[in-house]
Each structure stands twice: as C-alpha cells, then as structure tokens.
Design goal:
Radius of gyration of chain A: 18 Å
Largest sheet of chain B: 6 strands, antiparallel
Helix content of chain B: 10-25%
CATH superfamily of one domain in chain B: FAD/NAD(P)-binding domain
Distance between the termini of chain B: 35 Å
Oligomer: heterodimer
Structural class of chain B: alpha/beta
Shape of chain B: globular
Strand order of the largest sheet of chain B: 6-13-14-15-12-18
Largest sheet of chain A: none
Number of helices of chain A: 8
Radius of gyration of chain B: 24 Å
CATH class of one domain in chain B: Alpha Beta
Number of strands of chain A: 0
Number of domains of chain A: 2
CATH architecture of one domain in chain B: 3-Layer(bba) Sandwich
C-alpha cells in the first residue's frame, strides 16, 4: 500500500508533509483542523495528530508484518501506512496506544515461543497461524478482555479501521472516498465511467 | 475535554440553561449587545482532538458512539410508549448540544405548518406566522452558513439567496432524477449548514463522510456561537447541572437557578431574566422538577401543558439494488430532497418530505464486528429466537471464526448488485397523551426523578408514512431496482427531533409560552427550544430553533 506521503528524516511524516499529501493547502487546513488554522477565535483551534506515541521502530515493523497477514494479499502494506494511519492518528481513548503496543508485543512473543521467530521473520501464512493459535480469530474484540480479545480489539481492529478508512481499503469495498478519509467532493459526483453526471 | 475551573455564580443580566443551538444563539445575540450573560451547561466542552476521536467512535462498531458525553446515572430515563425513546442515542449533553452529531439539514418550515388549524382544522396554529419568522430565518441561515439553492418549487417562499451555494447533486441523484421525472416528482437541493466553501473561519467540506461526527469543522455546530458569545463577553460554564428554577414568594418571577458543580457543591445563579434551552425533553423535566407551593404541578405549568404534546418526526425508508453502479458512500450527506408531498391533504396523508440517500452502503463492520454465536449474548439471542440460519451457524461454525488475508470478511462488497435508498420523514400531530413526565421510581445522580417518555405514532402519522412508503416503492420500481429492505414505523425508535412539550400559543389556558416565547406564568422566564413548537411540520427543526432563539433574544433585549 503506497500512501504517497513524503517522510521527514526520522521516517515520520511531519504534519506539513502529511497535510500536503492530502492535496493542497485548503484541504490541508481542514484535514486536521476543527475550524481553520487562521481562526480568529482563540478557541477555534486545530486538532493535531499524535506526535508522541509509545511505539518503537520494532513495534511498527511488527504491526506492518501483522497487517500483511490480516489484509488481503493484493493490498501491499508499507511501514509509512502503519505510522501515519495507526500511530499518526489522534489517539481514540486514553492509553489506547499503550495497550496496542502491549498487544503487538503479545503477538510477537507468541510467535517467538511457538513459531520460532519474530513475527517479522515469518511468512504471511505463518503470521496468520500465529493469530489463529492465539485464539484471536474466534473471540469477540474486547478492550479489557483476555490477551486474545485485546489483540483482536487493538491490533486487528485498529488495522481494519485504518484499512477501511483509506482509499486502498475503499477500493476493496467499491468506494473511492470511504468514510473517515477526507478525499474531497469529487467522488460522489462521478459516474461509474469516471465522468460526471 | 477542557473546562474552566471556576464554576461559581457571577453577576448576570441573563442566565441561560443549556449550551446547544438555542442557548448559544440566545447568548450570542444578547452578549453582543452588551448584556452580561451566563450559560450553564451540564456537559463538557470538547477539544479539536475530541472531534477526531468522535469520528473513530462513530465508525468503529466496537466503540460506543455516545461515550464521549454520556453519564449513565445523570442521563437515565424511562421509555414507556410504543416507540423506544432511545434518548441517549440521539441527543448530546455537551457544549454545542445535539448539534455535535446532527446531520445539519436546515430546511425552513413551510407556511402551512404555522396555520394547521386555520387551513385544515387540525392541531393548533402558531401565534406567529411564517412571515413573522422569515427575517429570523434569514439571519439564522447567515449565522450558521447554510448552503443551498432556491430551486424547490414546493418549498416555502424566499427572497434572499442562501449564504453559500448548494452542493452539487450526487451521481445517484441523477439516477433518481430520471425516475422522479417520469413519475412527475420534483427534486430539489437539500439546504444544509455545511460549508460548500470556506465560511466564517471554517473550512469547506473536505469529504470525511462522517457528518454526525465531522472532524473538520465544515459542519456547523453550536460550538461556533458559544465561541462567539464568549468573545462578546458571555460566560459559559460547563459541567454544571441545573437542579431547579426558583421563584419569588408570589410566583411572579424567577429569582435564581440552583445548579450543582462536579465536586457536588450547589450554587444559586441569580439574574434579571432566565432562559431554559434544554431541548424538548429536559426543558419540561426541569420545569416539572421545579414545582413549588405556588406551582404544584410544575413551574410555569398553570396550563397543564408542560410535558404534553410531545412530537417527533416519524420516518420510513426503502432500500433497493441495481445491477449498475450507484456510487454510494463517497460523501456523508444528502444532496437532494423532494417536497412534492409536503402539503397536508385534508382527508388524505399528512406532510412528509423525501431525501435520497448517498450512503446506502455501509463501510464499517465486517470483520470488526463478528461476534461468535457461542458468546453469551448471542447464544441467548439464538436460544430465545432460534431462526434456522442462526441454528445452522451455531452448529457449523460455533466460534464464527474470523477469516484473515484473502478471505477477510469485508463490511460490504464492491458489487454488483449496488444499493440505493430513499428516506422519508413526516408530520406527527400534537396529542396530549404523548408526553414527558417524571418517573419518581427512578432517580438521577442528584436523586431527582428521571424523565419518562411516552410516545406513539397515532393514526395520522401511520397513514402519512404508509403513503410515503408507497411513493418510495414507486420510485425504486420505476428505476428498475429490486427492493431489498423496507423500514416501517413499527421498527422505528424516537427520532432526534423532540418538540412540543412547552408549547407556544395565544391562550394561557392551553399554552406554556406566548408568541415571544416568554412563559405566561412568570414574567422573566423564557424558553428557547423546539419544545415551544405547537406543530412540528415535516422538516428538521434546528434552523427554526435558531430563528426563534434570535427572535426571543430580541424580546429579552427589549426588556433589559
């Protein structure tokens, strides 16, 4: 999956870069802004995506590897996608990212203990077996549940949320501009052949 | 979330209870004219980041959409009628009120909605006409930033252009338009308080597609006028619950509002005038809770009408599929409507309008929401309602195993077939038995009885929406669609529009407020809310709420 987002030196897209990638200044101001950046009112501020999160490079690599097992094989997952769409979003609840990181570690530990290597070292098929053998595919997602339920809630569902709110995920659903993605106002007017009505 | 720490009373000309659209517009209009205004709001103030969180809560099936504001004990209620009140799914207690997750549709009421008794011999006339409210509609549209076009042959008359141009129709609108034209049904653009271009320091809509939790600020919320009111000097105090409204010894005027802060302390906010702006449920509840030796049945309730004549907008929808693409869910809002059937017909159906959905395809769910049939809640459901499909699933796939990789369970399929749907919302006439009362057997976090809601559709609404369903079916049939789902009134919960429970009128014996929205009983107590609507029409109420709030503020200003 290519998000076509230039990255800063440390590999994390800067806010400016992220917004530029979304398509120009006007869109950029709105994409993360509640009100505009030039708002006259002091309270009309802008939301900023998480700039500090507890994930290390290893965590992001591991989640990228898990994503390649969760997503259909024709979706190619890049590290920048996980960085921007999972850890770069506004944290949905307090400690959500901490628990996500803990769940990633649980998957990686299970891979090492039962499958003889880190999750990044395994094939996509073996990674799926890691999740299945943890019971992740047969439980209900629960934020405060068992390890398997938490992996389902934090790891699998965060990945699915990121996928289905992105244009690449939208493609799987036949939706060019899926809900959650600020893709402008052209797609809804376009006919099936790409032309306007 | 943020909030000021000092929640003690201050000197005020006007005290407003509630910081939703009605309270915000009233506060702004009075503060900008130099009056000292204090607004008391039960909920919290949201940050820009909170709006992004709300978007994820809205989209993720395992997140509670309303958890950002809800307090189970504080917001408890009872629902006793045919229709589930589902209050906490539809309202919001926070700075900005329910406009935090409204759809931002802003049609005006029609002229006939103000004259239902004179024209058709039903319900009651409003004590004001469409023409009386018209200049306030213009102001409200400008303040909110309404996008629209004067292209509705069945809409109410208007002279002034909308402040913002209308959004372009969707591709699926063009499919509906062909069928509607063949049937002689006229479509029009849907006016809405969402920016089609940058306006009032807010961005244009960038197509997040999650209007109920818009994170961009392109959709209007009353937070805008809360900020403006504060800039003009108003004080908005969040996280304070109004417990009662206290009057003088004789019951002629209100002296104070007693409220509680999060630390459990109680204070008394005094003012010259008081405005209750708590919506169609909590407004009558606060009056009923403020009973006294003078007003034994509730404050300002000499008429007995407080809490009665509750109305909402009954709605039905029909979904169908086509073999050709319908291009759904590329935007979150409705772009087209029809008021062809808005006119009330004597001895026929009542008013309703149609909207043509752009969101017939759901993109959340799928693997995110697979619940094993052996989980306790689903197992009990299956045992209680053992459908063949549920039993087969339980027997063959007891764990409902989620598939990963190429077999991933998608929320929807790319198609074909391709879905599309039509929704209709209609008029409910006021009936005294549809009402909000106090449930004394159940109390909130301050030990006060919770609101009890009893509402049913009645024959008129049922006949009206049956007609609406027939029209929906005829349009989809004309399109060549296969009808796949019909949502009738029997499956509905109460809508988001709560109206009529402190109604306006010329006769104090049967009305709570006069034509200025001042209570008949108390000279300095005003109500800004859809609760003053004597009839509800078939259109979304928020623009009318805003227009009435601006008008009421003018009357209060005259007294100050």
């Amino acid at each position: 999956m290519t998000e076509n987002q230039p990255e800063s030196d440390d590999g994390v897209p800067s806010r400016r870069q992220f917004l530029t990638a979304l398509g120009g200044t006007a869109l950029a101001a709105a994409a993360y802004g509640y009100g505009t950046d030039s708002g006259r009112s002091a309270a009309a501020g802008s939301a900023t995506p998480s700039s500090t999160h507890p994930a290390s490079g290893d965590h992001i690599d591991a989640l990228t590897a898990i994503a390649s097992a969760v997503y259909p094989s024709d979706v190619s997952v890049e590290r920048s996608f996980i960085e921007s769409r999972v850890f770069g979003r506004v944290e949905p609840e307090p400690d959500h990212f901490e628990k996500l990181v803990a769940a990633i570690e649980a998957v990686d530990n299970h891979a090492r203990a039962r499958f003889g290597g880190r999750v990044t070292d395994l094939s996509a098929g073996r990674r799926r077996q890691v999740l299945q053998s943890m019971g992740v595919t047969t439980v209900h997602p629960a934020a405060d549940g068992t390890t398997a339920e938490q992996v389902r809630f934090y790891v699998v569902n965060d990945l699915l949320y990121a996928l289905f709110t992105s244009p690449v995920g939208g493609e799987l659903l036949g939706v060019d501009n899926p809900p959650g993605h600020p893709g402008g106002r052209e797609a809804y007017q376009r006919g099936p052949g790409g032309g306007e009505r | 979330m943020t909030g000021a720490d000092d929640r003690t009373p201050t000197e005020a000309d006007v005290c407003i209870v509630g910081a939703g659209p009605a309270g915000a517009f009233t506060a702004y209009s009075l503060a900008r004219r130099g009056h000292d205004v204090v607004v008391l709001e039960a909920g919290e103030r949201l940050t820009p980041e909170d709006h992004h969180r709300r978007m994820e809560m809205w989209l993720r099936p395992n997140f509670e959409r309303g958890s950002f504001w809800r307090d189970g004990t504080r917001d408890a209620y009872t629902s006793t009628g045919d229709i589930d009140a589902r209050l906490n799914e539809t309202r919001v207690k926070a700075v900005g009120g329910t406009s935090l997750h409204w759809d931002a549709n802003t049609p005006r009421l029609h002229e006939e909605d103000f004259e239902m008794n004179t024209r058709y011999g039903v319900a009651r006339d409003w004590p004001i006409s469409y023409d009386d409210l018209r200049p306030y509609y213009v102001r409200a549209e400008r303040e909110m930033g309404v996008s629209g076009a004067d292209d509705n042959p069945h809409g109410p008359p208007r002279k002034e252009p909308y402040p913002l141009t209308a959004f372009e129709p969707s591709y699926s609108d063009s499919l509906f338009a062909e069928a509607c034209e063949d049937l002689g049904i006229t479509m029009a653009s849907q006016p809405k308080a969402i920016n089609s271009e940058a306006y009032d320091d807010r961005s244009e809509c960038v197509g997040y597609g999650v209007c109920n939790a818009c994170p961009s600020g392109a959709k209007y919320s009353a937070e805008v006028h809360v900020r403006k009111a504060e800039s003009a000097g108003a004080r908005v105090v969040d996280q304070v619950q109004a417990l009662s409204v206290e009057h003088d010894q004789t019951g002629d005027y209100v002296e104070s509002v007693v409220y509680a802060t999060p630390d459990g302390r109680q204070y008394r906010q005094e003012a010259d005038h008081f405005v209750i702006a708590c919506g169609g449920i909590e407004t009558p509840r606060l009056l009923l809770l403020s009973d006294s030796d003078v007003y034994r049945d509730g404050l300002a309730n000499s008429s007995g009408a407080v809490g009665r004549y509750l109305m909402d907008h009954p709605s039905v929808s029909t979904t169908g599929t086509l073999e050709e693409p319908t291009r759904q869910s590329n935007i979150g809002w409705v772009s087209s409507r029809s008021d062809q059937f808005y006119a009330h017909e004597e001895n026929g159906s009542g008013s309703y309008h149609l909207t043509f959905s752009n969101t017939a395809k759901s993109t959340s769910g799928g693997a995110q929401f697979r619940l094993p049939p052996t989980s306790p809640s689903r197992f009990l459901d299956i045992v209680g309602n053992p459908s063949p499909d549920a039993l087969a699933e339980l027997a063959t796939d007891p764990f409902n195993e989620m598939q990963l990789g190429d077999a991933l369970d998608l929320p929807t399929t790319p198609g074909p077939p391709y879905p599309l749907s039509i929704r209709g919302a209609g008029e409910m006439l006021p009936r005294s038995d549809n009402r909000v009362t106090l449930d004394k057997s159940k109390t909130d976090n301050h030990g006060r009885p919770v609101p009890s809601i009893n509402i049913s559709d009645g024959t008129h609404a049922q006949e009206t929406m049956e007609h609406c369903l027939e029209v929906q079916k005829s349009i989809l049939t004309e399109l060549g669609a296969e009808i796949t789902d019909v949502r009738t009134l029997s499956e509905r919960g109460m809508s988001t529009h709560h109206m009529g429970t402190t109604r306006m009128g010329t006769d104090p014996a049967e009305s709570v407020v006069n034509e200025q929205c001042r209570t008949y009983d108390l000279t300095n107590l005003w109500i800004a809310s859809s609760s003053v609507f004597p009839t509800a029409g078939a259109n979304n109420p928020t623009l009318t709420i805003a227009a009435l709030a601006l008008k009421t503020a003018d009357h209060i200003d005259d007294k100050l």
